[in-house]
Amino acid sequence: MTQAVNVTITGGAGQIGYALAFRIAHGDVFGPEVPVNLHLLEIPAGVRAAEGVAMELDDSAFPLLNSVHVHDNARSAFDGTNMVAFVGARPRSKGMERADLLEANGGIFGPQGTALGEHAAPDVRALVIGNPANTNAAILAAHAPDIPAGRITAMTRLDHNRAVAMLAKKTGAPAAAITRMSIWGNHSPTQYPDLFHALIDGVPATEKIDDHEWVAQEFVPRVAQRGTEIIQARGASSAASAASATIDHLHDWVHGTPKGDWTSVAMPSDGSYGVPEGLMCSFPMRSINGEWEIVQGLEISDFSQGYIDISVEELKQELKIVEELGFTPGL
Ligand code: NAI
User: Fold this and answer.
1) According to its UniProt record, which residues of this chain constitute the active site (predicted)?
2) CATH 3.40.30.10 fits 157-317, yes or no
């Protein structure tokens, strides 16, 4: 029997955690051969609810679920962990300024980064979902300097999937026919969904939709604002689709992106495309042998570059704030 992997979900009793835990326990990340020990980390007020989730996981009798554990401290939750989905974060409350939000989350991701660096397994892979995801991941990485840079990522896969879905709707093609979509920048309204390299059944998307107005006025803003659209309709933020995107990101990390395709991941820049080195920025990304690699050599038009610059500038500003608050050492 293959050795079990340890997977930790922070915020395991929240909406995304609730949808995510069952997919991981079902084997959707590692596949049907690999048993999973699931660890749910919660703040003390969430522990009872996490115990309820653990009871439901038991009751599902998943063949691959080796064990479920509930934790109220990061050190035990990360002890020997191979993979962590950082979902738990401090949400923005009414009247809260961006700096206050960054400070509150720095207070979470700083200590969790230290605990991760000290207790996780050497092969740990971390994905930050909790917002502001890119900067939370930068804080996490700054506190776990021994974890290789590419092993701590932030999620833009939901934005990627939304962009694929929107292009599919526009053209009538199935989502599976769309490849090479890209999300650049921050997981925020400044993100830039880029369809200029996307293919539909192997044909450039731009040949199928010769409608620049739709791209600029509908596609780009609507992908970026899709989260708000969901909240208005559902009365709650995206949860199942966020969990599904988390599974997609982790699955592709472990198994590789399909041949000829790529996805979108926020990871520390290596200086590609003029993005300052170290900035936790979303790029088109391939997963090869378990590592993410930035797709190189794409031609970026002035139209695209304008958007990318705005989002990169926002990331720099967020990082400047958390540097001033003492959470990161700077680039
Ligand atoms: P939620 O409020 O339902 O759940 C969050 C859970 O995290 C709660 O159970 C809370 O008790 C727990 N938590 C808070 N601080 C914690 C800490 N320090 N340690 C461990 N657990 C902690 O929220 P939901 O809907 O599950 O969303 C979680 C986060 O994901 C939010 O920040 C949200 O903005 C973000 N998000 C990100 C997306 C992305 O594409 N990157 C998409 C959708 C949501």
Assistant:
1) 187
2) no
Q: List the helix and strand counts (H, then E) for the chain.
A: 12, 14
Q: Which atom number of ligand 1 is nearest to the Cα of residue 88?
A: 7
Q: Which of 42, 183, 246, 264 to mutate to test the pocket of ligand 1 (most atoms within 8 A of CB)?
A: 42
Q: Say if pTM beats, i.e. exceeds, 0.95.
A: yes
Does residue 160 carry a catalytic annotation? Answer: no
The residue with greater pLDDT, 98 or 299, is 299
> Does ipTM exceed 0.95?
yes
Q: How many other CB atoms are found less than 10 A from the CB of residue 175?
A: 12
Top mutation candidate among 8, 43, 90 for ligand 1, by most atoms within 8 Å of CB: 43
Q: Are 284 and 197 in contact (CB under 8 A)?
A: yes
The residues, any chain, with a CB within 8 Å of residue 217's CB and separated by 6 or more, are none
- Break the chain into its structural domains and give their ranges: 5-154, 157-317
Q: If you search the block for the tokens 């050190």, which residue do you land on?
A: 75
pLDDT one-digit tens code per residue, 11-31: 999 999 999 999 999 999 999
Helix (H) or strand (E) holding 66: strand 65-71
Structure tokens at 266: 């926020």
Q: Which residues are near ligand 1 (CB < 6 Å)?
A: 10-11, 13-17, 41-43, 46, 87-89, 91, 108, 129-131, 133, 155, 158, 187, 237-239, 242
pLDDT digits (tens, 9 = 90+) for 168-215: 999 999 999 999 999 999 999 999 999 999 999 999 999 999 899 999
